[in-house]
Design goal:
Blueprint (H helix, E strand, L loop, with lengths): L1 E5 L2 E5 L10 H13 L4 E5 L14 H11 L3 E5 L3 H6 L1 H12 L3 E4 L2 H7 L3
Parallel strand pairs: 2-3, 3-4, 4-5
Antiparallel strand pairs: 1-2
Helix pairs in contact: 1-2
Length: about 120
């Protein structure tokens, strides 16, 4: 993991390589690391999410994202999720609604995060 300040906000970036994140404890571990580093936002590569995350019926997305919301840690999922969105209208709706909010964002590129964190 690396820490970076983006427009005055401390961001913890998870590396591209690493174990898949798909359980509540995985989310809690990431949140703990972020808190230890003083981060306010975590970026997570979309490729590190367990495949079940993108099947909303599995409940994995809800479980993981609820941890971030409960602990007031913002999450930016970085990477192309268009194939998953194309396969599920419900996921597309979920991604659009998340991007309208302030806690969880699905972004294609880190520069989009900088725009979101701009004053």
């Amino acid at each position: 993991m690396t820490l970076e300040t983006v427009n005055g906000t401390v961001v913890m970036h998870l590396p591209e390589a690493g174990p898949l994140i798909g359980a509540a404890q995985d989310a809690l571990d990431v949140i703990g690391e972020a808190w230890a580093g003083g981060a306010e936002v975590v970026t997570e590569p979309a490729d590190r999410l367990a495949p079940e995350f993108f099947d909303l019926r599995s409940g994995v997305a809800g479980t993981l994202l609820q941890k971030f919301v409960n602990y007031r840690m913002r999450l930016a999922i970085l990477g192309d999720v268009s194939a998953h969105v194309a396969a599920s209208e419900a996921l597309g709706d979920f991604v659009r609604e998340s991007n309208r909010g302030s806690h969880v964002w699905f972004l294609d590129h880190p520069r989009e995060l900088a725009e979101r964190l701009a004053p």
